[in-house]
Amino acid sequence: MVRNIERRMALADAGIQVLAEEGARGLTHRAVDAAAGTPRGTASNYFPTRDDLIRALVGRIEERLTPAPETLAALEKRTPDPALFADYVRDVVRRLLSDPNVAIALFELRLEATRRPAVADALGAWRRQAFDADVAFNESAGLPGGRTEIALFHYAIDGLMLDRLTVPVDSTLSVDAAVDRLVAGILR
Q1: Predicted TM-score of the model (pTM)
Q2: pLDDT digits (tens, 9 = 90+) for 14-43
Q3: Burial of 69 from C-beta contacts in 10 A (0-12 / 13-18 / 19+)
Q4: Torsion sign (Cα): 104, 107, 112, 118
Q5: How far apart are CA 164 and CA 125, in angstroms?
Q6: Alpha carbon of residue 67 to chain centroid
Q7: Rounded to whole angstroms, how far apart are CA atoms 78 and 100?
Q8: Are 113 and 124 in contact (CB under 8 A)?
Q9: Run of H or E residues at 131
Q10: 3-class DSSP state for residue 39?
Q11: How far apart are CA 75 and CA 127, in angstroms?
C-alpha cells in the first residue's frame, strides 16, 4: 500500500473537486489524476477500485468537516442555552460553506448512495458517527434537546445547505437569521 499521506490527501481533495464539478458520473480515476495534476494511474495506484476512491473521499470530507477541538472546548465552557446551541449550529454551517465543493460533493455522494450500496455503507457509517458526536456534544454541554432535536437540526441544516448551494428560495433571509429561527423553533 502506498504510504504518501500528503499525496493521498491531495488526490482525495481533487476527487472532491471532481465530484462537486462533474457529479458522480464524472468521478473517475483519470479525472482525479487530471484535477490533481498527477500522472495518469496515480489515483488508481492509491485507490485501486471506485469503492476505495469513494471511501477515501468520505474520509477526507470527514476530516475537512470535523470541528476543531479548540472550537468545541470553547463552546463547552459556555453557559448551556439556546445561544450556545445556535453558535454550535453556525459553526457547522460555516464549515459547510467555507468550501462549497465539500458540501456539494457530500450531496453528490448522498444521491449516489441511493444507487450504490457501497457508497451508502461508507457514507452511512460516517454520518451516524457524526450524528452521535453531535448528540454527545449536546449532552456534555448540558444543552436542551436530545437525539430527536439533533436529528431535526441535521434535516434542517441539510435543507439550508442545499438551498444556499443551489437555488435559494429566499435570498433575503441570512444564514444566521435562519439558524436563529431554527434554534428558537426546535429548542422551545
Answers
A1: 0.89
A2: 999 999 999 999 999 999 999 999 999 999
A3: exposed
A4: positive
A5: 26
A6: 11
A7: 29
A8: yes
A9: helix 117-140
A10: coil
A11: 22
